[in-house]
């Protein structure tokens, strides 16, 4: 399925359909994962989820999934452990995965009392690369890069197939894009960041500092000493596990 991207580890391309676009409050109603091995074997799984809340009509109008369609489906809490095992050892790909899908997954795992592991993974975002070059949405990206109409747009299974085709076509189109997941990951993330969410980085002197948020530019050690409640709040909130690990270590050293 890939002609231009070289895999050293399995790549799992993820797409979610949800009750809305707010990663803090909205819920997953469909998960589709296309897992590609370095040898080229593909495994595509799609699962619907009962969100436990009514699906707004405006959301149904986008993806066509209503309350009756998920009434007998398992909750996210029920599928979360199995999903984590399925994704274990995989790098991750998607369309807008950095700003949306991964953040919503982190929120859902947090609500389930679990952690969605991010640390150590490479993440490639076809939307990020597309916006760097062309600035459009998934349907336009599929037409632009693959010359095809995106039949079944806003269905997770169709979207994940389109996303993989777009990623592969982007690498073919742009000579300066690397052909490895490690290299593409560097194009999709802040090179100054120590964590996937881009909360922490190092200043010129090597000190770990906040690189965004209300304490942007402040030393992490300083905040750990003077505002430990802020870092404790981060540990409870829907930050990725690598962000929480850095914050937790700073609190431990400050204590």
Automatic annotation (TrEMBL):
UniProt keywords, alphabetically: Exonuclease, Hydrolase, Nuclease
Family matches, as Pfam families: ExoX-like_C, RNase_T
GO molecular function, one term: exonuclease activity
Keyword match Hydrolase: yes
Record domain Exonuclease: where: 10-176
Protein name per UniProt: 3'-5' exonuclease
């Amino acid at each position: 399925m890939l002609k231009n991207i070289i895999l050293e580890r399995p790549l799992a391309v993820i797409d979610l359909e949800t009750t809305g676009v707010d990663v803090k409050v909205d819920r997953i109603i469909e998960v589709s994962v296309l897992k590609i091995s370095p040898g080229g074997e593909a495994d595509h799984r799609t699962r619907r989820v009962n969100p436990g809340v009514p699906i707004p009509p405006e959301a149904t109008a986008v993806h066509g999934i209503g309350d009756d369609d998920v009434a007998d489906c398992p909750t996210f809490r029920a599928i979360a452990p199995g999903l984590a095992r399925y994704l274990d050892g995989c790098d991750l790909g998607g369309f807008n995965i950095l700003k949306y899908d991964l953040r919503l997954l982190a929120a859902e795992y947090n609500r389930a009392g679990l952690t969605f592991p991010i640390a150590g993974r490479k993440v490639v975002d076809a939307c990020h690369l597309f916006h760097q070059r062309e600035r459009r949405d998934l349907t336009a990206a599929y037409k632009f890069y693959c010359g095809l109409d995106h039949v079944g747009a806003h269905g997770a299974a169709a979207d994940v197939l389109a996303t993989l085709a777009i990623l592969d076509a982007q690498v073919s189109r742009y000579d300066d894009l690397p052909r490895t997941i490690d290299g593409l990951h560097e194009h999709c993330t802040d090179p100054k960041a120590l964590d996937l969410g881009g909360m922490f980085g190092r200043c010129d002197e090597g000190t770990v500092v906040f690189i965004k948020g209300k304490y942007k530019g402040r030393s992490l050690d300083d905040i750990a000493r003077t505002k430990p409640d802020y870092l404790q709040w981060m540990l409870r909130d829907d930050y990725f596990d690598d962000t929480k690990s850095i914050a937790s270590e700073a609190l431990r050293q400050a204590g």
